[in-house]
TrEMBL record:
Name under which the protein is recorded: HTH marR-type domain-containing protein
PROSITE patterns: ROK
Domain of life per record: Bacteria
Annotated family: Belongs to the ROK (NagC/XylR) family.
Domain HTH marR-type: 25-64
InterPro entries per record: ArsR-like_HTH, ATPase_NBD, HTH_MarR-typ, ROK, ROK_cs, WH-like_DNA-bd_sf, WH_DNA-bd_sf
SUPFAM superfamilies documented for this protein: Actin-like ATPase domain, Winged helix' DNA-binding domain
CDD domains from the UniProt entry: HTH_ARSR
GO MF, one annotated term: DNA-binding transcription factor activity
Length: 402
């Protein structure tokens, strides 16, 4: 079944909606590089004068580039516009209790610099200082104009803002990292859990570019899901939507850090994969914060193969539940697994789906491979400021073409 394409976001001709209209134009150009002003007018339903004024402003601001005029069948030649990759950049951090990975990406999502720093469960204030210093260092490393910094994104494991981010260190409860960072970094700062950040990255640059309803499965040391429904991330009443890692799937199963037994992430996560090895090898994998030992594993290794078989079985059941409840266009698998292992897991899942037959909503739910990289959450975090800059305000001003 052909996937439903992402719907175009319309502008509004209300005078107070200039910010929304700028985003609508940037979003239109992002989706289809090489749009003329007439094309933008047609897509956004803004007036020709509004488009002319805003495009001129965006070009002057360095966010849009005008190409050479293209001769039309009728009328004057038209200049195609595209995003200027040099028009801005964002920094993304992937933060855990032991590792701080950073990437700097341009407006097109191309990585321009990266860095990594081992940390030891630091307190929040010290972490802010480390993040600010790392931001300055990576900008210098990239050689880009510091004034073009759109903002900083930070991805962290677990729900953010409920009882403090999980997996960092004691003392993080109720700490407002975004406000503390903004005060010291002097730019907008966004904090998100790793699964939601990665889902936004896939929407902007990846497999989900043309999807408005998908679920991103982030396989890290735990397991989470980013729910992108009706064109926006769904966070839930307390920001914990997508915490599928703690769905109970086995009666009297393995003990989980949440205090219960048989949770999904005890079978589908990096730590669950490590449990397939003997004690010495497991400790080596757990203590390797750079994930180099994980990257050296092969899908053909017996412990890895056994984990893939079990994880795929549990994921297939989970996907059937997701399909029935949320009716997404697709599932995207990603996270910290090395690409060969992620691909093998995807192959096993699709094979099991063929055996199980169609879902309650009809045809098979498509499952795609997303970003498989130890920096996937950092890239997702870098997408947060760009997403805020380029995607219209869906909650307040969205008008969608039928």
């Amino acid at each position: 079944m052909k996937e439903k394409p992402s719907e175009s976001v319309l502008g509004t001709n209300l005078l107070h909606a200039k910010s929304h209209n700028r985003r609508a134009i940037l979003d239109a150009v992002r989706r289809s590089a090489g749009l003329s002003r007439a094309d933008i007018t047609r897509i956004t339903h803004l007036s020709a004068q509004a488009v002319s004024n805003l495009v001129a402003e965006l070009e002057e601001a360095g966010l849009l580039l005008a190409g050479e005029p293209v001769r039309q069948k009728r009328g004057q030649p038209a200049r195609p516009y595209r995003l200027n990759p040099e028009g801005g950049f964002a920094i993304g951090f992937q933060l855990s209790g032991t590792q701080m990975d950073a990437v700097l990406v341009d407006l097109l999502g191309e990585e321009r610099a990266r860095s990594s720093l081992q940390i030891n469960h630091p307190d929040p204030e010290k972490t802010v200082d480390l993040l600010v210093a790392a931001s300055r260092d990576i900008i210098i490393k990239s050689g880009l104009d510091p004034d073009r910094n759109i903002g900083i994104g930070i991805a962290m494991p677990g729900p953010v803002g409920i009882a403090g981010p999980t997996g960092i260190a004691p003392g993080w409860e109720n700490f407002d990292l975004a406000s503390a960072m903004t005060a010291k970094a002097g730019c907008p700062v966004f904090v998100e859990n790793d699964a939601d950040a990665a889902a936004i990255s896939e929407k902007l640059y990846g497999t989900a570019r043309e999807l408005d309803n998908f679920v991103y499965i982030f396989i890290g040391h735990g397991l989470g899901a980013g729910l992108f429904l009706d064109g926006r991330i769904v966070r839930g009443a307390q920001g914990a939507a997508g915490e599928i890692g703690h769905i109970p799937i086995m009666v009297n199963g393995r003990k989980c850090g949440c205090g219960r037994q048989g949770c999904l992430e005890r079978y589908v996560s990096l730590l669950a994969l490590y449990d397939e090895f003997d004690a010495a090898h497991r400790d080596d994998l757990v203590l390797d914060h750079n994930l180099t030992r994980l990257s050296a594993l092969s899908p053909d290794d017996a412990p890895v193969r056994h984990w893939i078989d079990q994880a795929a079985l549990h994921l297939t059941t989970t996907f059937q539940i997701i399909s029935s409840m949320l009716n997404p266009q697709a599932i995207i698998l990603g996270g910290l697994l090395p690409e060969p292992i992620l691909t093998a897991l995807w192959q096993k899942v699709t094979k099991l789906q063929d055996v199980d037959g169609p879902t309650p909503t009809g045809a098979h739910l498509p499952v795609h491979i997303g970003d498989a990289s130890t920096y996937s959450a950092a890239r997702g975090a870098a997408a947060l400021p760009i997403y805020q800059e380029m995607i219209p305000d869906f909650q307040n001003m969205l008008k969608v073409r039928d």
